[in-house]
What we know:
Blueprint: E1 15-16, E2 20-21, E3 23-24, H1 35-48, H2 58-77, E4 85-88, H3 91-106, E5 124-128, H4 137-146, E6 149-153, H5 166-169, E7 174-180, H6 192-202, E8 205-209, H7 221-224, E9 228-232, E10 243-247, H8 249-254, E11 265-268, E12 273-275, H9 289-305, H10 307-326, E13 331-334, E14 348-353, H11 358-367, E15 370-371, E16 373-375, H12 380-385, E17 391-395, H13 402-412, H14 415-418
Parallel strand pairs: 3-15, 5-6, 5-7, 7-8, 8-9
Antiparallel strand pairs: 1-2, 4-10, 9-10, 11-12, 13-14, 14-17, 16-17
Helix pairs in contact: 1-9, 2-9, 3-4, 10-13
Amino acid sequence: MLRDLHDDFPILSRTVRNGKPLVYLDSAATSQKPSAVLEAESAFYREHNGAVARGAHLLAEEATEAFESARSDVARLVGASPEEIVWTSGATASINLVANGIGDASLGAGGEEAARFRIGPGDRIVVTEAEHHANLIPWQQLAARTGAELAWIPVDDDGRFDLDNLDTIVNGSTTVLAFSHAGNVTGIVADVAPLVARAREVGALTVLDACQSVPHLPVDVAQLGVDFMAFSGHKMLGPTGIGALWGRKELLDALPPSVFGGGAIAIVTMERTTWLEAPMRFEPGTQPVAQAVGMGAAARYLMDLGMDQVARHEARLAQIMREGVAELPGVRLLGPVGDPDRIDVLGLAAVAVDGVHAHDVGQVLDDLGVLARVGHHCAQPLHRRFGLTGSTRASAHVYTREDDARAFVEALATVRSFFGVHA
């Protein structure tokens, strides 16, 4: 198991609500930052700040080295090559980059090199009913833009992908299959293999939302076998405003960019422009250099801990929260209770309390110093499948203690009596 990491995270030493100790259980929304990340970003600004790839002076050289070293560190975390990592502002931007590139290719951008991405009427884009809006809406918009059909894989009562009709849904007309690696409501870690296998059978591209898996599980893009993968810095102990898109190099080099400016170009005349190879073709303008440095530091921090150890630690927290919630009358756990011998559920528990609105549940927890998430968590279709408009979600990370998980269950146990709700 992991050592106690509280001292690595300065914010966790503060108190909240009348001097109560801070129990932070909103890591699926955004994670806290260790001193190593805070110092890396601060040190860049203090000592190395400069424009990357655009100057011959010392600070420009140092900034470029820090920027590209961070790319290498993030690549190493997911088993990739640095030239396959594109810096973005976050996973939402990463997914939109792919969807918009496909849309532009469908209108003729990128020439014959991008012809493999073209879609239109008669083609199908497939998502799942469990997707975060960031991996649903871009594909809705692409379907509307191109005339392609949008279809989806349903989920069962636990929130797992229902693959009984996979071959019918992902049919011969399917060009894109986009799905999440781990659910931000249920915590379920998907079995990627059958989805990738079916996509390959029909020649569809696979786009993986790995926002909730990269920070918590060992992830290796070669083993996953997908074509594109998006993840964010702020969920993996890094800064906000930075994320990454991983893609197969040959696909990135063929995908047309959809955001334009300096730094991404090879030749510019008054009539036309040609693009650099990936990843630079997707990184125009002023880069988030300090944020990338911070994300690189976060990647190193996680690798030093060992992602196998991280996953085991959070599996134990999942067991405590889920088993505790399952014993509370009038409280419904979304997703499976989980098997402590299998790392297939994140350290996350979303619940609905009979007779109490999710926001009211969150307020009671907050008054007790337990900071959880309330609402639909950018997953309205999934909540609708569960017959809900929202839920209260507790989510852990490497710094979460077992006592924090128990504090969530104990606080949750007081909610119904606080509001005078009885069975």
